[in-house]
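Q: What would this chain look like folded?
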Amino acid sequence: KMSSGIQIKPKTAVQKSKTLPCSPGPAIKPQPKPSDKLNPKTIDPFGAHSRPPSAFAAIYAKGGIPCRLVHGSVKHRLQWECLPESVPFDPLLVTLAEGLRETKHPYTFVSKEGFKELLMVEGATEKAIPLLPRLVPALKAALAHSDDEVFGRGLDALVQLSAVVGPSLNDHLKHLLTNLSRRLMDKKFKEKITVALQKLEQYGGKVS
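A: My prediction, written as structure tokens:
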């Protein structure tokens, strides 16, 4: 009885496998359009629509970032909906740090300028220090980014943060220095990184 039971199973398996090739058939048929792959016009709209907005872009679109870009004739600036002093650092400072990885306007400016201005408010040190475990991974991601401008924004933000939190950043520096040392080989950034490291040392004190 057991052997007959075993024999039945392969049959059902075979029957299933016979029906399987039929089901992908219709899915394969609409494919032969190599022209679509070669024609950038057909690729572009799909790429734009299928890519979901970044977390920062989504928060910005919902009004979750209480500042907006104001286009000036000479210089752009940020306009805050309320005084930056009254804005809770958690989660805004972390969100702005994550936004440093953006490559599209106006997110690039809003994240960079917002991060800088928020760190300039009174009491920024006390507000920023508890957020370091979340800020450092965001800065690390910006410093690891292949885009030169993103790296530059990450480096500026790191120095700004170091100036505000001082030695509190020392324990986290090991997570960031690898990305800085990689870029030291790049002539474009050698001087900028050297200056940044000197400032980190200055703000971090003897231990750094």
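The domain at 59-204 is CATH 1.25.10 (Leucine-rich Repeat Variant).
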